[in-house]
Task: structure prediction
Amino acid sequence: MKVSLKWLREYVEVPDDNKALCDKLDLTGTGVEGADEKGASFSNVVVGQILAKEHHPNSDHMWVCSVDVGDHNLGDDGSPAPLQIVCGAQNFKALDKIAVALVGAQLPGDVKIKKSKLRGIKSCGMNCSSRELGLGAESDGIMILPEDAPIGVDFADYLDLTDTVLDLEITPNRPDCLSMEGMAREVGAIYRESVADVCTDYTLEENGQATDELVDVSVKDPDRCLRYAARVIDGIKVGPSPDWMVERLTAAGMRSINNVVDATNYVLMLLGQPLHAFDFDKVDKTGSRAQIIVRAAADGEHLTTLDGEDRTLSSDMTVIASPQRPLALAGVMGGLDSEVTDQTTSIMLETAVFDAAHTSRTSRNLGLMSESSIRYERKVDAAAVERNADFAAALIVALCGGSASKGLIDWYPQPVSPCDLRFRMPRFCKMMGADIPRAEAEDILTRLGCKVSDAGDDTMRVIAPTYRPDLEREIDLYEEVLRLYGMAKIPRTLPGGRGRVGRKSRHEKIIDRLHTTLQACGLNETMTYSFAGEDDLIKLRMDPSVKDHAVHVINPINADQSVMRQSIIPGLLRSVAFNQHHDCENVQLYEIGNVFTSHEGRKLPREQQKLAGVLVGSMANAQWNRPATPFDFFDGKGVLEAIARELALPKVRFKAADADKTPFLQPGRAAYLIAGGATIGWVGEIHPLAVKAFEAEAPVVAFELDIDHLEASTRPSRDYHDVSEFPAVRTDIAFVVDEGVTAEQMMQRITSAGGKILDDVQLFDIYRDEERLGAGKKSMAFALVWRALDRTLKGAEVDKAQAKLITKVGKATGAEVRAR
Amino acid sequence: MAVIDEINEVRTRALADIESAQGTDALDTVRVDVLGKSGALTHYLRSMGSIPAGDRAIVGKTLNSVRDEVETALQHKHDALASAELDQSMAQGAVDITLPGRAQQVGTRHLISGIIDEITDIFRGIGYSVASGTEVETDYYNFEALNTPPDHPARGMQDTFYVVDQTGEHSSVRGESDVLLRTQTSGVQAHTMEDQKPPIYIVAPGKVYRRDVADPSHLPQFNQIEGLVVDKGITFGDLRGTLDYVCKQIFGEDRETRFRPHYFPFTEPSAEVDVSCGICHGKGCRFCKGTGWVEVLGCGMVDPNVFGYADIDPEVYSGFAFGMGAERIACLKYNVPDLRMLLAGDMRFLRQF
Result:
């Protein structure tokens, strides 16, 4: 809402200090989003007087004028001298006061006034029209000023063009503030100033023609229209609006159109009352009467609105119609057919109140917001319609001529009654946490237009004004008193309460542990969009049937973000590409976030929290004392091993992933993480073609785990194992086995064959040599640590145990000892 | 006596050799030459038997004294040489300590997660627990149960992403749906009030979505931290005190807060909270657009209608709710020039925090 302080000052005293005013508005609930200091859009224009006017010798329509501009022009003797100005306008005579642009003046449209010759006659300035000064849309010749205009005075000062226009944030609960009258009341209440009646300037005089002989109004659905008033104004002349109105509308951010439309817009801005003027001659008549019907639109009915758009209507929308056709979309916009034009001589002025909910839905359904719809959906005061209608008619007659029909047709079956509320002082003070004096509360409510009386029991009876639809409950009044009393005056306290503790849930602790572990593994947390492209999973080579369960956004911003993600990996791959394109080759990222799966017949999709990570390049570039080690499958697996350890996952194993079930991973470099029998997620190198589809460069090691599964598998505590105080015996064994024998098989066999005294086993070398070991064979070397909890092991005991181990492992796997 | 002279000669030579020894190895050679199995002094000690009995005492005494003297000299010299050699070897081991260390890369926390952690920790410290909810929500929990019925003008305040309703139901407004991406984490509050009896002290951090095109100051997806308190005797003063405390914890003890009355459908009275500008400290500068204040959060007393939806008696209980944007706080604290950096995964950005 743009509010001109110059205009506002017509009705209420406003402090001169703009900064103080803005602060005060901010602290009482009217947000100030900007303050635009307005001045004239011209300079060096002064008030002048035509002293003489003679025919231009070389032109039949131009005049050579002698213009007094005071001491802005001095003669040879140093005393004021008139200027010679050539002028083509016809609407002036000698001794008229006019606006003169001096040489050097700047006018709107980047016009600069210079000395010139017009058909051989010198001209030292310009007599200005209102259009040339940016003060009016059209003009018949130059501006003629009142006789008392002082010669030589700067024209901007004379017009009092300096103004401050505040851009105010009016919250949806305050429709009253979407008008100058409402803002005047608000400012009056804030500063305890009286507010002048804004409707005094015009009084309505009616002609002999009774309105109800011209118009018949029937409202079909009272739920959609609370009040409908109409009057006919005949004999008007459509033309430009007076300057003062253009100036005010411009300040309010509106464009001047013609005097009729401007008058309706002016009333809208002044009183917050949307009006609509129909060209009465274009409204279908039955006999001499127009039949105005307010009804639900028919589904599929068409109406071309003022903006030229053909609108298809639905039954939830309301139209103003003749028996033949719809004329206007109630509360939102008029129809093009019955629009006021330059030829209009007779109008029907509608002053109505339409239902908020229907207006809001209509506006949203059509994507059509107007100054009217904004006000109707926030509620317009039905009680003020008669006054508003009379004022609007008087204003139009004053501006456009003609005369108003006798009497207002006023369909108003259920007059609104003001809200009758109670204000319990003790409860108010208790809820605020401050002792606010009753007198102060009463004063504030009264200033806001409420009628306050005593209801006994430390309670006030408060009748709220009808222009404040937001005051319908006791709590609404609390807010009013608090905001004008001053929130800053309420003492700051902290809630008491017994037995309250802030605690972390198990889930939060697990998430914390995951973050710590991943960061310890060198990974950096990131966030990517929850949105995804519809073809992301195809690009990733994931099972295309998964796509059928995507959650579709109805109104996405762009096609790349039209569904909710089903995996975090595509987002991470985009980040990998981003980094690679910015010459950053080493990428270690992870994200914890939700993925979404829809299900036919279920309103809400399934949301699963996932942990995903990518490792690309290496952990660091080569250093003086350490080479760069490129990431491979085992770096990803190592991260999962760390997680498994930190979350104390039970019975952890990695199972080779089937290539046909994980087509997005490189075959042979992909595994499932299984803990306690449940599959927690996968780790692997992303298929090179999938990486390429996201414009990144392979290899990309990645993993994605399901947090719910992780959480379900995590053991709440760890088991303690005794630590031996006795010395260890270390031995190394290299087994030669077939290629097909896995490390996991060997580890399992060795561990079980070693018995209780085998404390630790590490695989420290894998060696292949066709000549020495044979084709299809490999040597796996293990470091064994033998140690007992209760004694120092003797050499012979270890030898015996190791011999048994070799036999058992050999039997189970075909392994032969290569060296010892 | 010739033997005595010979012994003294051995002594003189030995002491000179010790003195001139160049290293512990050379010194050891000297020791062997003098005191070894066939050393010069050992020879005399062994041949005491052939010394005439009358001379034995004096020769023995001389021998012992020379041996002690040589041993002491050897020990002193060894200590000196060993120390010098250690110094030398350490000197050779000196490194350019400005060379980079062999550090393991430690990963980083995302700036926004860090801020959410910081803020939730502050609230845990004053007895709040963390609650969470789904990101796809029904219209009821995102709007209606928060006192924003279907045609409420406040719906226009937030541009909502709608998703396809798989039950096949249709909204009364074209392009809208009963299922949406939550525009606020307030839905968590509505669920909590249904599921849990007061007292309630929760904060709900999480992702929210609004239909804004991504640009330096807007993201269609961002993070909010909302809070809800419902208890007996909760006052507006409690709301002021709590948020003043929290803002000071986040931004610094020297920062002031101010409450500006505002409007939110689910609270009344409602307010926006400003923190004094950290750059100009309230004088007014470009950062705070000359006001001296920067907006950080919205809040208010829980509207009785909201209690109504959750079957909580507003005559018995009162409460407050508040919400703040983690990205906004990140911008205020770190001056991030372009919010899109928060979602790009740029390693150069992420590794800064």
Chain A is about 25% helix and 30% strand. Chain A has a mean pLDDT of 92. The CA atoms of residues 766 and 780 of chain A lie 5 Å apart. Chain A touches chain B through 104 residues (CB under 8 Å).
